[in-house]
Amino acid sequence: MTASDDHPAHTHRPRPRRRSALVLVLVLVAGGAAGPPGARLVSERVASWAHGEALVVIVEDALPADEPLAWVRAEERRADAVLVVRWVEACDRLQVASIPRDLILDRSGEPLSVIFGTGGTAAVERALATAFALDIAATVTMDLGDVREVADAVGPVEVTLRAPSRDQRTGFAGGPGPVVLDADTAVAYLRSRQWEESRGGEWVPVAHDDLGRIGREHAYLAAVLTELRGAGFADRVRLGVAVVRHGDAAIHRHLALVGLVSRLQAAGDVEFLTVGVVAERSVDERRSPFSAGSLGAAHRFVLAPRQADVFRSDDCPTGAAAP
């Protein structure tokens, strides 16, 4: 299926870009550990500015115009992934938490993916701040085209797959064992919602919901952080420039954001976690709120007990940490 006059190809929507003179500082601090001793000292000192603050990252489910199915998302916006990044000062741990996009957090009864489409970044911030008592220093929004550009700046990274795996919709194929992801294969890997593994000579569907994709997302991010920690100062600056160029930043507290960026490559430990959810009633014919003739998400989630407190403690997290 290709774009037609009835279904115009998606073009990147003009979104308000809130920039700051501190962008250069962010880039330099992010590279501090690989820079001169003075830069390292600055990086360590500004870390305290991040205490109690969060960075939200939203990836929009929108495709570049040259993608065959780009027209599907031409008339609507949905969040494809939502991440909350925090630094836990007590144990110098960077916490990267995934919020399932199909999670219902407010009285509207709509999941985060739809809240983003109807109310934008500010609506997602309000929902997260209210549900989890978060202080949000900044939110960065990217679409899949932006993710591809940033992945290209990162360079190839390696993930390990337990079995031959594929997604015929996105074109990803690889495994078993180590698989090198360049920019294009990284996007195909991260977009997958129809993941299959070869078992006993047959392709078996595996983890079609958002929770399965979050696991792959974490594996990729862990590989990126490993690459970032081993990168030189110039490579960090190049990556920082790519994020600034392709991400739309709503910055509320600049100093807190500087502190968070400094921890991306210098924190003593990294923990990946997924906010606990329980499935809401599944409706096979749930309709899309954007189009009466289209199906919406078949599965939606609500918070599991006590998950509203997941970000309210400054104690060291106890979940599995990335190597």
Protein described:
With 323 residues, the protein is of the alpha+beta class. The protein has one domain (23-279): 3-Layer(aba) Sandwich (Aminopeptidase). Helix content is 32%, strand content 23%. The protein is built from 8 helices and 15 strands. The protein has helices at residues 23-30, 37-46, 112-132, 144-154, 183-191, 210-230, 233-246, 254-263; strands at 54-60, 79-88, 93-99, 136-143, 157-161, 165-167, 172-174, 177-181, 196-199, 202-205, 248-251, 269-274, 277-279, 301-303, 321-322. The protein has a 7-stranded mixed sheet, with helices on both faces. Strand 2 and strand 3 form a beta hairpin. Helix 1 (23-30) runs antiparallel to helix 7 (233-246), helix 4 packs across helix 5 (183-191) and helix 5 runs antiparallel to helix 6. The longest helix is centred in the middle third of the chain and has 21 residues, at 112-132. The protein is globular and about 55 Å long.
Task: Describe the protein's topology.
Blueprint: H1 23-30, H2 37-46, E1 54-60, E2 79-88, E3 93-99, H3 112-132, E4 136-143, H4 144-154, E5 157-161, E6 165-167, E7 172-174, E8 177-181, H5 183-191, E9 196-199, E10 202-205, H6 210-230, H7 233-246, E11 248-251, H8 254-263, E12 269-274, E13 277-279, E14 301-303, E15 321-322
Parallel strand pairs: 1-4, 3-12
Antiparallel strand pairs: 1-2, 2-3, 4-11, 5-8, 6-7, 6-9, 9-10, 12-15, 13-14
